[in-house]
Structure prediction request, 95 residues.
Amino acid sequence: MTNEANRWIKQAFHDLKASFPYRCRCRFCKNAPIGKLEFSHERATALSHGAKRGRKEKYYDIKNHPKSYRLRTRRCHLLRKAAQHKRFIREAQQR
Ligand SMILES: [Zn+2]
Prediction:
């Protein structure tokens, strides 16, 4: 990416975060500043299975499917992923 494209996507993500309506309400995320939040992919979208997943593709996927994402802190995002992983393992073992 060129410098200009880089700046654009950085600013675009910041603006999207600032106006994003779906934020995690847990104690880690509730009062976190925007800079500490990241998009957590919560429901499948076309991007989930797509081969091409650059920042720009992600940006437009979030913009077009906001309900499939939540703003979370890194900590909450990782905790959620770990819980999903545990559930996945448990379900696989029950089969
Ligand atoms: Zn949270």
